[in-house]
Design goal:
Helix content: over 70%
Strand content: under 5%
Largest sheet: none
Structural class: mainly alpha
Radius of gyration: 20 Å
Length: about 130
């Protein structure tokens, strides 16, 4: 009975693994292409080093960041209650904000460092003008 419940719990945890891997790969690919807009010659190995360093900086404080994000949502929930708005609207933002919010800091940090290293801010104006000429 205990072995069966342990096996069931293990299978349940493993079944979430493909989703987590897919989310992580999609996140890194999106970040890479976003950074390539700022620095066209960004090497993938250099990019992965930046992501790794940013991840290692966030990992130890991830629980604290998740709690801080949840704390902010406490005030948002209070405002919704005061305005008699349906709280169900906040379910997904709270879930995804708390779960993935700390990883947005990695995105921001890596993107900021790539932009700073390229020496200029990314713009769409130059590429738009070049296509229209």
């Amino acid at each position: 009975s205990k072995a069966l419940s342990f096996a069931d719990a293990a299978v349940t945890k493993i079944s979430h693994l493909p989703r987590v891997v897919f989310a992580a790969v999609a996140y890194i690919v999106a970040l890479y292409f976003d950074c390539r807009r700022s620095q066209g010659d960004l090497a993938f190995g250099n990019f992965l080093k930046r992501v790794g360093v940013a991840f290692l900086r966030v990992a130890p404080v991830y629980p604290f960041l998740a709690v801080a994000i949840s704390f902010v949502f406490l005030f948002i929930i209070s405002a919704f209650e005061a305005l008699h708005l349906p709280l169900e609207i906040l379910n997904l933002p709270i879930y995804y904000g708390t779960l993935y919010g700390p990883f947005s800091w990695i995105y921001y940090t890596v993107k900021r460092r790539v932009v700073e290293s390229s020496g200029s801010l990314p713009t769409m104006i130059g590429s738009h003008c070049a296509r229209n000429e």
